[in-house]
């Protein structure tokens, strides 16, 4: 991409005779002959407006060789004795003939006092406006609400020790008599293979078996997805696309009232919308059928249930049940202590124990130390 380089000439204003817009090539005012000096008004150049989009200067570029040579002479220097501006390639001041020393602009900057103290803010300015204060109160409320819920949750599961007493004991025992009995079930033909049953001995070693597979009928087993043609789906999308070029300019100050401007053409990008179309497979549910049959097998069935219970010191015992050798027995037992604890308000809660041995260690009326959560769950009791 080709570069276009131009030299743009700045202008300055004479503070002695008030002439405006003097081209930078004049180091002296063409009207009053005063040299350009290091003052706020004279030391800065004006380069006019630039195009907002490209940054290109609206001024014509310099073309004559003499001025172009001046632009390449380096940054101007200001005489430390008389303050006049001089060409960068000159060693003696054109005004007072003094030798070039350190630049007066640099000296001026050195002589500047340190950072000026900031003006104190007006009274009352440090007070915050009422809005953030309201937000702070709201935020605080929200914080305590959520945090409070969390704290409450933790508090509910935390434990504390209380004096307490066993106010009751209770046990319950159940015997379940089960018999391996013939049943008719249904199953999918491909999952059934004939097998003889085996009867249990002392409630063990049985096999259910599969016998007499019969009455098979076609039945819906489920469904599967099958492709059902395609359909065309289009979506509007956007993409970036090169769409021609645009000019971009950068400038570099040469420190002597001239600027070098470099313009080049760069690729411009635009958003382009397009239709993205593709074929998508459509699916439909198709029922799946299989053959379902009846068959004979065996299952454990409850034939009798006996329950005994007792409380407050009555010793636990099993119910009586006459059992044949092919039957099996299931035993269920439940042991509960009723505990009252806490002062001044008394709470009551049950405590389940796992074994008879544990249960028999406690007696009604016994004083205990209770470890319970604030939520009312008893975690542990100890004799007191
Ligand atoms: Zn002048
Ligand atoms: Zn001088």
Describe how the helices and strands are arranged:
Blueprint lengths: L2 E7 L1 E2 L9 E2 L41 H7 L5 E2 L6 E2 L17 H8 L18 H28 L1 E30 L22 E43 L4 E54 L16 E14 L5 E7 L2 H5 L6 E7 L4 E6 L1
Bound molecules: zinc ion (ZN) (2 copies).
Q: Which small molecules are bound? A: zinc ion
Task: Say how many strands there are.
Answer: 12
Which regions are unreliable across 5 or more consecutive residues at pLDDT < 50?
A: 114-130
Overall structural class, as computed from helix and strand content, comes to mainly beta
Mean pLDDT: 86
Q: Could you give a short account of the major beta sheet? A: 8 strands, antiparallel
Distance between the amino and carboxyl termini: 96 Å
Work out the radius of gyration.
51 Å
Query: What spatial form do the alpha-carbon principal axes imply?
Result: elongated
Fraction of residues in H or I helices: 10-25%
Number of helices: 4
Order of helices and strands: EEEHEEHHEEEEEHEE
- Provide the β-strand percentage band: over 45%
Domain RanBP2-type: 72-102
Transmembrane segments: 134-155
Region (Disordered): 108-130
GO molecular function: zinc ion binding
Structural notes for this entry:
Residues 72-102 form the RanBP2-type domain. It comes from Stigmatella aurantiaca. InterPro entries: Znf_RanBP2. The chain crosses the membrane at residues 134-155. GO terms for molecular function: zinc ion binding. There is one protein chain. With 384 residues, the chain is mainly beta. Among the domains are: 1-117, no CATH class; 126-154. Helix content is 12%, strand content 46%. It has helices at 65-71, 104-111, 130-157, 356-360, and strands spanning 3-9, 11-12, 22-23, 77-78, 85-86, 159-188, 211-253, 258-311, 328-341, 347-353, 367-373, 378-383. The strands form three sheets. Strands 1, 6, 7, 8, 9, 10, 11 and 12 form an eight-stranded antiparallel sheet that branches. A two-stranded antiparallel ribbon has the order 2-3. The chain is elongated. It binds zinc ion (2 copies). The site of one zinc ion (ZN) has 8 residues, from loops. One zinc ion is lined by residues 14, 16-17, 19, 29, 31-32, 34.
């Amino acid at each position: 991409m080709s570069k276009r380089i131009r030299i743009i000439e700045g202008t300055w204003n004479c503070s002695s005779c008030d002439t405006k817009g003097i081209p930078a090539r004049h180091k002296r005012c063409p009207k009053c002959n005063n040299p350009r000096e290091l003052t706020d008004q004279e030391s800065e150049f004006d380069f006019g407006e630039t195009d907002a989009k490209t940054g290109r200067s609206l001024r014509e570029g310099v073309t004559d060789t003499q001025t172009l040579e001046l632009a390449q002479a380096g940054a101007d220097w200001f005489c430390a004795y008389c303050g006049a501006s001089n060409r960068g390639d000159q060693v003696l001041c054109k005004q007072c003939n003094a030798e070039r020393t350190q630049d007066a602009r640099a000296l001026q900057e050195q002589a500047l006092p340190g950072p000026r103290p900031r003006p104190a803010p007006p009274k009352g300015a440090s007070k915050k406006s009422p809005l953030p204060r309201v937000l702070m109160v709201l935020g605080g409320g929200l914080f305590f609400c959520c945090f409070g819920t969390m704290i409450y949750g933790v508090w509910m599961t935390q434990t504390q020790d209380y004096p307490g007493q066993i106010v009751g004991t209770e046990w319950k025992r159940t015997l379940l008599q089960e018999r391996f009995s013939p049943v008719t079930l249904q199953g999918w033909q491909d999952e059934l293979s004939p097998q003889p049953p085996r009867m249990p001995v002392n409630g063990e070693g049985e096999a259910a078996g599969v016998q007499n597979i019969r009455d098979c009928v076609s039945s819906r087993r489920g469904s599967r997805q099958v492709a059902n043609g395609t359909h065309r789906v289009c979506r509007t999308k956007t993409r970036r696309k090169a769409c021609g070029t645009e000019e971009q300019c950068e400038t570099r100050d040469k420190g002597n009232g001239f600027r070098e401007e470099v313009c080049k053409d760069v690729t411009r990008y635009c958003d382009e919308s397009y239709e993205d179309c593709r074929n998508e497979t459509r699916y439909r549910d198709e029922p799946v059928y299989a053959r379902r049959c009846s068959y004979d097998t065996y299952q454990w069935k409850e034939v009798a249930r006996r329950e005994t219970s007792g409380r407050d010191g009555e010793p636990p015992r099993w119910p009586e049940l006459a059992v044949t050798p092919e039957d099996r027995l299931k035993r269920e037992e439940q042991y509960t202590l009723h505990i009252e604890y806490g002062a001044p308000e008394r709470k009551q809660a049950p405590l389940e124990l796992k074994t008879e041995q544990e249960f028999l260690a406690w007696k009604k009326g016994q004083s205990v130390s209770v470890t319970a959560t604030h939520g009312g769950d008893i975690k542990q009791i100890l004799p007191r």
